[in-house]
Amino acid sequence: MSADTPRPTRHAMLAGFAASPVVATGVGVFPSAARAQARAAGLLTPNVCMVLPEATVAPCCLDERLLRSDITDGREGVPLRLRMQVVTAECQPVPEARVHIWHCDAQGNYAGAATQGSDETFLRGTQISDEDGLVRFDTIYPGWFGENTPQIHYQVYLDESTVLTSQIFFPDALSQYLYLAVRPYRDREDERESLSRSDGSAQQAGEGAFAAIREQQARYDAALVVGIDPQGSGAAQCPSRGGAGEVFLAGRDG
Q1: How many helices (H) and strands (E) does the chain have?
Q2: Which CATH architecture has domain 10-232?
Q3: pTM score, two decimals?
Q4: Where do the domains of the chain lie?
Q5: Distance (Å, whole) CA 93 – CA 129
Q6: Contact at 8 Å (CB) between 80 and 152?
Q7: Low-confidence stretches of the chain (pLDDT beneath 50)
Q8: Can you say how many angstroms the Cα of residue 47 is from the centroid of all Cα atoms in its chain?
Q9: Nearest partner of 11 among 228, 166, 232, judged by Cα
Q10: Cis omega before residue 184 (within 30°)?
């Protein structure tokens, strides 16, 4: 790069990662230049989901039982370690952000759903980001729920008035392999109805919302950078114990 060539800003670089076509593969294979830029910026992975913060009326209550990194609760499935990094649009890490995730099990069940009992907490957990903006969860590869493609829901609480809400998606090829070849996914009687490439929520979230996946000997590793876009406002929603699709507005009775 010559001295006369303008260098990309960190904001532009972060946005570029999020829009990059290679992110759609979700398999952790990126050009060396993208990897070098990600390392230089201190990013966990070039897979970046740009999320709009939402203004809340009041903070959601923290369930102390969910403050944990291992959220499996004995649920059967392919082991998955999920790492997330919360950063600003300038690629600066966000420490002490409260990250909450939840997803269904291999059979499509959500903790807290009517069929599971209101006190169930499987595959739900909360972590506080470290000085590098990082959190880690040990869980299982999610199954599918109804017409929805496999996904992990998450919320990032930045302070008492700001929360981010989105989903993490997974490559169709990997999901299809696991669902056809591995128990207990393959034992389901219902058929998977939606692919990530045709799922409305996945399309709305964008390519950057797909996790970077690496296969390890004992598990899969998934990684995603949550890039905060400071523009945006609205009413935030908090996960209740009612299971999939049942939420309450922050500051209201849950």
Answers
A1: 4, 12
A2: Sandwich (2.60)
A3: 0.77
A4: 10-232
A5: 9
A6: no
A7: 1-3, 5, 21-30, 55-59, 116, 232-254
A8: 11
A9: 228
A10: yes
